[in-house]
């Protein structure tokens, strides 16, 4: 029965039951961690072959480049060819970098701030700069803005993109709006998948600032959890077609394909933006880790090789997602106290509890030995105005630990919701 239909006597009885259940939970002395979206050891094991590649005496790329030496700023063609297909970008417009796409996002932001983009009249740092932030979103995007004093404006994110009316209005009317953070495929954390239609709107909408940029972070482009494998939209082609070829910066990496923190990152954009990026990058480094490019190219082989590997990842993590959904449904469904996403890919489930309860739920869970990402983490400055959103990252723990953590979390959600009602 829905919590809102319970009489005050029933609520008091339920409060008593939940308090006992919570005390039992605390008594178990659990030590579980659902905080960050990390691959499980079994997922990392899938790519252990990389540890012995390219192998003794192997250091020549297909074009004869000696990968042991400096140079080759755009990265090895063989790894770029594989990911150009997967990301649906022209290989000539794709750069393969070092181990983290977050670093490329950081750098493009800093280059824009200190030097300006190819369409800027002056460096961004000389003006007030605002970024639109679809929420819930990725905390590290917001942390980058905070770090460099960029104002953030939230926009509600639905299952196929942000509130477009607000985005279009703000971008058209305010030249301080220079950027928007987008995770187009299986967004962190709500699993949103941007449709081609939404993408067209974003790349073609009029902008007050000629150097407005979409930070298109396709971190989960190939991370499907169902047979419905959403393909990468041709965002650069659509932007060119719309007359805004320089609007989009595309980012991606193999962090959750091979090894997190020891993979290959990617940047793609218009030819002018790629030249701009490589010019600044050339001051920062004498070349990327091409040895890593080579071992990744040899290991992955082709775009189909990546697709096959991603199906093995799916086999490991899909049951964990199913478990979370089943337990949430069983424990919370009938009370109608929460809603959650059922993502078709990516690494997260986004849980919304009653307004004003998320901080309490996370604190209760912590006390019971279940570490959740802090309430509000998916919002700029860590502030969720409704204090309702909790990000669940089920990939890293074992299936048993995921089940125990979500069972415990459900007790905390119910207790917090009942506490709120009985104290009202
Ligand atoms: N973007 C998003 C949306 C992510 O969720 C993550 C990883 N949590 C990253 C980027 C980080 O990617 P990388 O390891 O390539 O820096």
Automatic annotation (TrEMBL):
Pfam families the record matches: Asp_aminotransf
EC number of the protein: 2.6.1.1
Keywords: Aminotransferase, Transferase
InterPro entries in alphabetical order: AspAT_Ic, PyrdxlP-dep_Trfase, PyrdxlP-dep_Trfase_major, PyrdxlP-dep_Trfase_small
Coiled-coil residue windows: none
Broad EC category: transferase
CDD domains, alphabetized: AAT_like
Protein name: Aspartate aminotransferase AspT
Originating species: Microlunatus phosphovorus (strain ATCC 700054 / DSM 10555 / JCM 9379 / NBRC 101784 / NCIMB 13414 / VKM Ac-1990 / NM-1)
């Amino acid at each position: 029965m829905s919590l809102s239909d319970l009489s005050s006597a029933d609520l008091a009885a339920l409060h008593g039951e939940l308090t006992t259940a919570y005390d039992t939970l605390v008594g178990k002395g659990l030590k579980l961690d659902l905080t960050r979206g990390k691959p499980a050891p079994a997922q990392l094991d899938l790519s252990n072959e990389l540890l012995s590649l390219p192998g003794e005496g192997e250091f020549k790329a297909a074009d004869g480049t000696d990968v042991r030496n400096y140079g080759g700023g755009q990265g090895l063609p063989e790894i770029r060819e594989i990911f150009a297909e997967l990301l649906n970008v022209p290989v000539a417009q794709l750069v393969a970098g070092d181990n983290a796409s977050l670093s490329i996002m950081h750098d493009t932001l800093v280059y824009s701030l200190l030097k300006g983009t190819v369409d800027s009249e002056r460096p961004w740092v000389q003006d007030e700069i605002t970024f639109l932030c679809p929420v819930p979103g990725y905390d590290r995007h917001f942390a980058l803005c905070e770090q460099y004093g960029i104002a953030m404006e939230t926009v509600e994110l639905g299952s196929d993109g942000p509130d477009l009316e607000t985005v279009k209005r703000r971008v058209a009317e305010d030249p301080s709006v220079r950027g928007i953070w987008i995770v187009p495929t299986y967004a962190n954390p709500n699993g949103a998948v941007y449709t081609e239609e939404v993408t067209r709107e974003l790349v073609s909408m009029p902008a007050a600032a000629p150097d407005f940029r979409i930070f298109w972070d396709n971190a989960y482009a190939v991370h499907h959890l169902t047979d419905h494998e959403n393909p990468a939209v041709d965002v650069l082609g659509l932007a060119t077609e719309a007359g805004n070829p320089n609007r989009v910066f595309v980012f991606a990496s193999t962090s959750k394909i091979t090894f997190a923190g020891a993979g290959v990152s990617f940047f793609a954009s218009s030819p002018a933006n790629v030249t701009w990026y490589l010019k600044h990058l050339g001051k920062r480094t004498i070349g990327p880790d091409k040895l890593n490019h080579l071992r990744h190219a040899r290991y992955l082989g082709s775009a189909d090789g990546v697709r096959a590997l991603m199906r093995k990842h799916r086999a490991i993590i899909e049951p964990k997602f199913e478990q979370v959904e089943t337990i949430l449904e069983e424990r919370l469904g009938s009370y109608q106290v929460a809603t959650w996403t059922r993502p078709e890919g990516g690494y997260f489930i986004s849980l919304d509890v009653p307004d004003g309860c998320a901080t309490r739920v996370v604190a209760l869970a912590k006390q019971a030995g279940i570490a959740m990402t802090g309430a509000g983490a998916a919002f700029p400055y860590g502030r969720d105005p409704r204090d309702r959103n909790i990000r669940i990252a089920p990939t890293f723990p074992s299936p048993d630990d995921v089940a125990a953590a979500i069972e415990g979390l459900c007790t905390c959600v119910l207790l917090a919701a009942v506490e709120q009602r009985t104290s009202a």
